[in-house]
Amino acid sequence: MWEWIVNLFTNILLIIYKYLGGNFGVAIIVFTVLSRVVLYPLMRNQIKGTQAMQEFQNSKEWQEIQKKYKDDKEKLAQEQMRLYREMGINPFASCLPTFIQLPILFALYQSVVRALAASPAQLLILQHAVYPILGLPDIIPINSKFLWMNLAQPERLYVFGVGIPVLAILTALTTYLQTKLTTPPPANPNDQSAMMSKTMALYMPFFMGWITYTLASGLAVYIIVSNLLGIAQYAMMGKVNWNVLLPQKAGQTSQARKK
């Protein structure tokens, strides 16, 4: 099954490459746009899940439960799950697109490496992976150059002999911005789900940055474009919280949470 997915992604990338000027960087960008379109329904469910969690955290019943069982963590967790069921809330709904995105990233990475075929052995694997009916064998080998980078290798921009991982930095930055801009402020920062979201918001940019620092730069292009498109989609739906980019006083933050 996994091999079938990797081969499918490889052929999609090659088809885009063939018909859009033979630029593999452009092929990755177009592939990113297509994947964002396909995943759009999941993103809508993520927004609904996030809004449901906001309503849950702001509900008087949940706030009363927190006060009543503040010294009994086990009972608090039981009451929390009971309230989730009554309100029809899936606590993992807001995280689902992220977890779905990770397998796509890994499959895309293998697809990029497979399509670029940097060695004779990889070229042989690629020849067995492409769909001959689409006329793809005639475009092999693929041109891996895009801007200053080799898409099959980790990216570094050399300035005065120093290699700067520009794409890894941009990956971490755009991942942080997407999470920050699209996550509404929690009503109760000490709530378990709010603390889990905060932890993910802190660690995910470093995780994604490390991935793109060590792996093929074609993957970094996908992640950066995907993050920017995610922010744009949220903005078009009026769901971006631009205020988080501005310094706020404690009183202003408290008022924002009440709205």
What does this protein structure show overall?
This protein is mainly α and 259 residues long. The chain has one domain (2-258). Helix content is 68%, strand content 4%. The protein has eleven helices and four strands. The chain has helices at 2-19, 24-38, 40-58, 60-68, 73-87, 96-116, 120-129, 166-182, 192-214, 217-236, 250-258, and strands at residues 145-146, 149-150, 157-159, 162-164. A two-stranded antiparallel sheet has the order 1-2. A two-stranded antiparallel ribbon has the order 3-4. Strand 1 (145-146) and strand 2 form a beta hairpin. Helix 6 crosses helix 7 (120-129) and helix 8 (166-182) runs parallel beside helix 10.
H-E order: HHHHHHHEEEEHHHH
Instruction: Please give the count of helices.
Output: 11
Overall spatial form: elongated
Structural class: mainly alpha
- State the distance separating the first and last CA atoms: 47 Å
Mean pLDDT across all amino acids: 79
- Percent of residues in helices: 55-70%
Strand order of the largest sheet: 1-2
What Rg is obtained from the alpha carbons, in whole angstroms? Answer: 22 Å
Nutshell version of this structure?
This protein is mainly alpha-helical. The protein contains eleven helices and four strands; from the N terminus they run αααααααββββαααα. Helix 2 (24-38) crosses helix 10.
